[in-house]
Amino acid sequence: MEQAVPILPSRDLRETLAFYEALGFENRGAPPEEWDYLILGRGDVWLHFALQADVDPHTTANGCYVYVDDSDALYADWAPAIVPDRSSGSRIVAPVTTDYGMREFAVVDRSGNLVRVGTRIAQAP
To answer: What is the pLDDT of residue 123?
Structure first.
């Protein structure tokens, strides 16, 4: 088995942990203060975060793509947990069907990381 895991910046690891715990992720590593690093997981999805206190959430260009079985159902589950925050720009963007065969939505966390979540859909003939 091969797997890639993104390492994303976090301006505040406790804030990042709370944000992703609200989405059903769990801390699979040490407490944030022990390593200045987070290892989060939800099912087979793993996200790593390294402390970068000077990160500007409005200018970061970091992100990753998460493939799931049902992006619409996951969006419905996550949407109530994400309260848009103007100071950080965190938000959730509703699902769309793309011309490249995905049904996807996006989450921007409080450190400005973009997490796109999608499901492959059957292509039109």
So the answer is: 64
In a domain, 2, yes or no: no
Predicted local distance difference test score (pLDDT) of residue 40: 98
82: domain CATH number is 3.10.180.10
pTM for this predicted structure: 0.92
Residue 9's contacts (CB-CB under 8 Å, 6 or more residues apart) are 49, 50, 51, 52, 55, 60, 62, 111, 113
Task: State the DSSP string of the chain.
Answer: ------EEEES-HHHHHHHHHTTT-EE-SS-HHHHTEEEEEETTEEEEEEE-TT--TTT---EEEEE-S-HHHHHHHHGGG---BTTTTBEEEEEEE-TTSEEEEEEE-TT--EEEEEEE-PPP-
> Which residue range is the domain that position 33 belongs to?
7-53+61-120
Strands 63-67 and 26-27: unpaired
